[in-house]
């Protein structure tokens, strides 16, 4: 590939990173805390493209021969354009159903705020229910948001995918549902569930990891959040 093509690809990739970092698109790939690095990478790539173009123009007159690379090399720009034109969906029910729960024991359990209902993350509820025996959850009205996933038997779970760094290492935390469950649940449907703690537990059919239950009192579909991943479990 000649210098002009290199410059164009560097600029496109840098512009793509800036576009992703200045919108919520980057959340499909990396955790929210990495936004500054995504923006910095975009700036560095665009600066490198500008420097490469300046160097090429400055030294082009001194060259005796010019080698024409095959035009097919420009096809390398297609994956970069795809990142702009076709944003991949966030990992959802398929990944959750085929991956064991990643719930681990937290270092501690901070005090929960007063007031009803109490909004909790899926991982926060699961950690307190399993490793603190639900002490801070008892007699509280709870609200949780997540997407629906089903196991092979059709049993429903409320799940969120958590990230250590990026979507490539995403793992699910799951909560089994009981009580007033909607009669029809479609995988990847996002629900806001109101319910209460129950000591009932089960094991993940994938890795035998612990999965707590939530006693559902009501549920309603909601749009997917801007950040579909739950980072509370690895903070």
Average pLDDT level:
83
Strands, count: 6
Strand line-up in the sheet with most strands: 2-3-4-6-5
For the biggest sheet, the summary is: 5 strands, mixed, barrel
- Structural class label: alpha/beta
Report the CATH topology name of the largest domain. OB fold (Dihydrolipoamide Acetyltransferase, E2P)
The CATH class of the largest domain is identified as Mainly Beta
**Segments where pLDDT lies below 50 for 5+ residues?**
none
What coarse outline follows from CA principal-axis ratios? elongated
User: How do the helices and strands follow one another from N- to C-terminus?
Assistant: HHHHEHEEEEE
N→C terminal distance: 43 Å
Relative helix content: 25-40%
| Rg calc | 24 Å
What percent of residues are in strands?
Answer: 15-25%
Compute the number of structural domains. 2
CATH architecture assignment name of the largest domain? Beta Barrel
Keywords: Membrane, Transmembrane, Transmembrane helix
Protein name: Membrane protein
Organism: Streptomyces azureus
């Amino acid at each position: 590939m000649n210098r002009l093509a290199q410059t164009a690809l560097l600029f496109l990739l840098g512009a793509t990173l800036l576009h992703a970092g200045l919108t919520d698109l980057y959340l499909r790939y990396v955790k929210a805390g990495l936004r500054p690095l995504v923006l910095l990478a975009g700036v560095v790539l665009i600066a490198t493209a500008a420097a490469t173009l300046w160097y090429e123009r400055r030294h082009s007159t001194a060259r005796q021969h010019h080698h024409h690379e095959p035009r097919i090399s420009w096809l390398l720009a297609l994956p970069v354009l795809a990142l702009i034109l076709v944003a991949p969906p966030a990992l959802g029910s398929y990944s959750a159903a085929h991956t064991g729960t990643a719930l681990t024991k937290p270092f501690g359990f901070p005090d929960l705020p007063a007031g009803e209902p109490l909004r909790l993350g899926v991982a926060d509820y699961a950690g307190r229910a399993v490793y603190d025996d639900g002490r801070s959850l008892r007699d509280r009205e709870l609200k949780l948001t997540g997407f629906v996933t089903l196991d092979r038997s059709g049993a429903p779970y409320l799940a969120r995918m958590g990230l250590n760094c990026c979507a490539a290492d995403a793992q699910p935390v799951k909560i089994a549902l009981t009580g007033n469950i909607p009669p029809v649940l479609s995988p990847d449907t996002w629900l806001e569930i109101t319910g209460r703690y129950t000591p009932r537990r089960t094991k993940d059919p994938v890795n035998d990891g612990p999965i707590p239950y939530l006693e559902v009192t009501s549920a309603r579909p909601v749009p997917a959040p801007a950040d579909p991943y739950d980072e509370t479990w690895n903070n």
